[in-house]
Amino acid sequence: AQSVTQLDSQVPVFEEAPVELRCNYSSSVSVYLFWYVQYPNQGLQLLLKYLSGSTLVKGINGFEAEFNKSQTSFHLRKPSVHISDTAEYFCAVSAQENSNSGYALNFGKGTSLLVTP
Amino acid sequence: KAGVTQTPRYLIKTRGQQVTLSCSPISGHRSVSWYQQTPGQGLQFLFEYFSETQRNKGNFPGRFSGRQFSNSRSEMNVSTLELGDSALYLCASSPGQGDFNYGYTFGSGTRLTVV
């Protein structure tokens, strides 16, 4: 089974400052990694994903993440945040345990990003 | 292209009742999965369906069930509702099982309140 740990439950940051949201995962098989954002009273929107290949992944809204297999991490970064980035961010992992099983997204507990002027 | 559509958006039910939630995936998507989101437990996987077959199931009691129809639309049912079932229920679709080129696309969810 896979699991995800988001190391910070809340991250306050000033507008135009850089931010990093941390995510570590555990899995015994190869995984797919995702970051989702959730605005109040809405569903989840995909920011970016790592499936294979380049370990630096660029997503929407200026976000990027780096897959580090040795450290089992997938941290999300943005060089300069805006007020509109205030939201809940979820890291998720998916894998197939065996050829007969399906897939499931296992989510971290979420990180609340609060951007203030 | 229409997104993932979940109906209804809001629902209030009484303890002991049952409820059925509906999810219409993006056209052409054949995999549908369901998630429960609560403040205490966060996002938890319920089940995944592909081609009308349940391929994966989370750690929820048997009161939670689901199905998928030939047009890929899916329903989930919760019987004998408990107060703790109050949550946002999210549905997600993807083109095929394990097809993550576009990730999972989520609907806006159904907010279930059990009183």
Describe the 3D structure:
The complex is a heterodimer of chains A (117) and B (115). Chain A has 117 residues and is mainly β. Chain A has no helices and twelve strands. In chain A, strands 2, 5, 6, 10, 11 and 12 form a six-stranded mixed beta sheet that branches. Chain A has a four-stranded antiparallel beta sheet with strand order 3-9-8-7, with no helix packed on it. A two-stranded antiparallel sheet of chain A has the order 1-4. The model of chain A has no long low-confidence stretch (mean pLDDT 91). With 115 residues, chain B is mainly beta. Helix content of chain B is 0%, strand content 52%. Chain B is built from no helices and eleven strands. The relative contact order of chain B is 0.32. The interface between A and B is medium-sized, with 24 and 28 residues.
- N- to C-terminal distance of chain B: 37 Å
Low-confidence segments of chain A, given as residue ranges, are: none
Our estimate of the beta-strand percent of chain A is over 45%
Distance between the termini of chain A: 41 Å
Overall pLDDT level of chain B: 93
Number of helices of chain A: 0
**What percent of residues of chain B are in strands?**
over 45%
Main sheet attributes: strand count, strand direction, barrel closure of chain A:
6 strands, mixed
State the secondary-structure class of chain A: mainly beta
Task: Work out the helicity level of chain B.
Answer: under 10%
What is the share of helical residues of chain A?
Answer: under 10%
How confident is the prediction overall: mean pLDDT of chain A?
91
Largest sheet of chain B: 7 strands, mixed
Shape call of chain A: globular
Radius of gyration of chain B, CA atoms, in whole angstroms: 13 Å
The number of helical runs of chain B is 0
Helix-strand pattern of chain B: EEEEEEEEEEE
Largest interface: A-B, 24 and 28 residues
**Which runs of chain B of at least 5 residues are low in confidence (pLDDT < 50)?**
none
What is the CA-atom radius of gyration of chain A, in angstroms? 14 Å
DSSP strand tally of chain A: 12
